[in-house]
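--- STAGE predict ---
source: upstream dedup step, 1 unique chain passed
mode: sequence only
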Amino acid sequence: MAALTLAAGPFAAVALAQAPCANRGLLDARYCDDNGDLIADQPKDPKAWQDPATLVFSYTPVEDPAVYENVFDDFMQHIAKVTGKRVRWYPAESYAAQVEAPALRAPASRGVATGPTPYAVNLAGFEPVASMQRANGSIGYTLQLITFKDSPIKSVADLKGKRVAHVSPSSNSGDAAPRALFSSMGVVPGKDYEVLFSGKHDNSIMGVVNKDYDAAPVASTVVERMQARGMFKAGDLRVVYESAPFPRTAFGVAHNLAPELKAKIREAFIGFDFKKSKLAAEFKDTERFAAIEYRKDWRDVLTIHKAGGVTYTQETLSKLGKKAE
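--- STAGE serialize ---
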């Protein structure tokens, strides 16, 4: 659940807004999608291209951002070596911060979770490039509905009348997906059970472990990593429902990054020796970074957003940020 991005500067936004556009789709008015791939096109005017001296890297706040600064350290050094740029860390505290935080409006690298990725694509000109790939070739994770070990909850139907932790309105596995999937099973979040926003996946997970919540829909990968770190025992939780796989973190670049620098960053991802890095110790199920295609790999996520009436606007992003804190 992350991404590498170079944010467009004010000049680029103005240039794009004034350029003719045959197709925009769901993109913000600053961007254009003439080639129909659902992401912002490269600016036609080379003066709008970004080629910064420093990249700011930020990982999605599924857990404490401080945990991951050291984990991503050698990867950031690898990016610096391949691109010839300086790379520094920025600890994003909410999903919305990864799209709108002032520190990330400068040329930046940011980690965007699965659900917020469409917001970054449509509102910030984010261009997904790669994702972590498992040994079996999958880039997916699942929504797991978890409850504590001696809970009476055995199925989604048993959530009725309970207190359930959702992560935040912008989270895919922590809110958007369960709203669509559980409703199709006859259990409507917010109507049939009380929704309590925890703000982060780890808050939801530990809240269930400590019985502060009756249950919680969360990302399977976060459960696996927290258990591997000894934050709770395997028997402390039960999974009562699991979805089909969703794509994991989208690592990418800004649409208006200089093409040569885009190519170097793609090279940095695909050529990174994942197995010999600190990342391998944290993401034990991962073998490499693999190339992704947003239109294809995020199709189900976009379908869930559409079914839920999600719109990608600065207003909705602002509301998500307040709720996600």
